[in-house]
Amino acid sequence: MSNNTKVIKELSKLTGKDFRVFDSKFLDNNRENSDYMYSVQGEDIIFIGLDLMKLNLEDKVLEDIEKSLSNLKNLKGLSIAYNKNNEVPRFIRNFNNLETLNLQKNNLKSLPDWMKEFKNLKYLNLEYNNLQILPEWLGTLTNLETLKLEKNTLEWNEINLEILKSICERNGNITATRLLSLQAHHNFPTEQIEIIRELEKENTEKEKLGQKVNRINIKVEDGRVVEWRLFEYNIISLPENFGVFNHLRSMIISRSKIETLPESFGELKDLETLDLSNNKLISLPESFVNLTAIKNLNLSNNQLTEIPTQLWALKELTKLNLSNNPFNPEDATISQKVPDLIRKHLRKKATIRVFISHAVVDFEPYHIKDLVDYLVAQKDISQVFFCEEDLAGNIDEWMLDALQKCHLILFIGTQKSVFNSPDCANELQLADKFSIPVIPLKGQDINWPDLAEINLSRELGLEYDKENFNEFFEKLYKYILNFKQEIDLMDKVSRQRGITDIYERFRLMLDETINDMKRKMDDLAKRIAKLEEKSN
């Protein structure tokens, strides 16, 4: 009788269990369900599995089992559930050539340092234990290909993360808590993983309690989150910095009680599909106009009382679902139309932001505060930016931020603003940079040719009447409305094209006028010539 056969008979007698022999390929695929099984290679037992937890054996019997197992000198695989003192059985130390070790369901709280000598270990199963912090040496087992850690209480810390990352970096396989596993595989920037952790907080607590939770439904390409599905999450808002996920192409946040979206949501400029259905949204952030790549948008079953005007900017939109929102009667009808007609309707409704460029000394003489108050009160204008007399802080920074938000600039043209105001000159440069139309309002101490020197032409402007300023304000507002209808102020490309069209029409009118004057002068010259002939 060989030594290995003798060991199996001893173990069978001690445990009261019959051990079955299987080929190593079968056991490689059934490591977690290999109790009382073994495989041989030649005359050597190379794998054995047994569960001693369920047998309620006396300590003397357990010691005899340990002695018998210690005789398996060429053992390469071991699966054991032991649960003695919640520690890894010391007799395993003798098997430092192990390639497979299954220690699941042993109530382990730590791993002994001597396991760092298991340099040949390829597969280690530590599931269903009570591990919180992994030993640093675990990352030095360079042959380790599979590490299973589910159903533990692992802490979120750098030690655990670095160990898991090291295995993933050499194309190994790991299973762990959902968040640790996700970060180990993808190594997201800190700002992004913290947002994911925040949104997964409730599920993480459920996971700790052993409750079933769905996997984190995120798709990653080249280290970037491109798809994300948040379904039935108990959240009412997203973190303010959610825009850091600016490579998202598809986003589903459905049945999740969302009431508001942060302004940074407008930074998700690669979004093509967005499902926000079955939430509690009452409005969209202003920055939503930046999501111009969206083709498919679902806003159904929310609390919108009117169609968000921000949708006018979504030029690629081909599918739009606005059903089951408490719209007013007009918008309820409009919402049934195709996206292009809805966008056309919204463009007319959309409000604009205006910047007033003026020299500080012109604030009082040109009634700037009165002008601001008048414009702000108009339904087509949502906001008016202007330099107050006592404006403090970083003016250049404020100016840059304000101008980029605006659709139109009113330039109060005076001797000071045209010839001696660096701030006004800077504002005109920024207007050109961001393709923001400028309506020049000529003051009384300057002429149109002076404004032409700074590329402001009278065909786009008005003469400022500061004596009858109330009547002038009404005239100016009507002019702005006509300007808004003439040019799509909401879109940069359309603004450029609209301004070009106006200039082209003016040039053609001017050419026609000049040609007509030439013809009249020629006719006049001919008549003078005839009169001279007669007089001679």
Model description:
The chain has 536 residues and is of the alpha/beta class. Among the domains are: 136 residues, Ribonuclease Inhibitor (Leucine-rich repeat, LRR (right-handed beta-alpha superhelix), Alpha-Beta Horseshoe), CATH 3.80.10.10; 139 residues, Rossmann fold (3-Layer(aba) Sandwich), CATH 3.40.50; 44 residues. It contains 16 helices and 19 strands. The strands form three sheets. The chain has an eight-stranded mixed sheet, with helices on one face. Helix 1 runs antiparallel to helix 3, helix 4 packs across helix 5 and helix 11 runs parallel beside helix 13. About 2% of the residues have low confidence.
Topology readout:
Elements: H1 3-15, E1 20-21, H2 24-28, E2 37-41, E3 44-51, H3 59-69, E4 77-81, E5 100-102, E6 123-125, E7 146-148, H4 158-169, E8 173-175, H5 178-186, H6 190-199, H7 201-208, E9 218-221, E10 224-231, E11 250-254, E12 273-275, E13 296-298, E14 319-321, H8 329-334, H9 339-349, E15 352-357, H10 368-376, E16 381-386, H11 395-405, E17 408-413, H12 415-419, H13 422-433, E18 438-442, H14 448-452, E19 462-463, H15 469-486, H16 492-535
Parallel strand pairs: 1-2, 3-4, 4-5, 5-6, 6-7, 7-8, 10-11, 11-12, 12-13, 13-14, 15-16, 15-17, 17-18, 18-19
Antiparallel strand pairs: 2-3, 9-10
Helix pairs in contact: 1-3, 4-5, 11-13
Pfam families: LRR_14, LRR_8
Keywords: Leucine-rich repeat, Repeat
Protein name: TIR domain-containing protein
CATH topology heading of the domain at 352-490 = Rossmann fold
Q: Residue ranges: pLDDT <50 for 5 or more in a row?
A: 502-510
Q: Please, how many helices?
A: 16
- From the helix content, strand content and strand pairing, which structural class follows? alpha/beta
- CA(first)-CA(last) distance: 151 Å
CATH-assigned homologous superfamily of the domain at 352-490: Toll/interleukin-1 receptor homology (TIR) domain
Q: Main sheet: which strands, in order across?
A: 1-2-3-4-5-6-7-8
Strand content: 15-25%
What is the radius of gyration? 38 Å
Shape: elongated
Mean pLDDT: 88
CATH architectural label of the domain at 352-490:
3-Layer(aba) Sandwich
Q: Main beta sheet: strand number and arrangement? A: 8 strands, mixed
CATH class of the domain at 352-490: Alpha Beta
Helix content: 25-40%
In total, the number of strands is 19
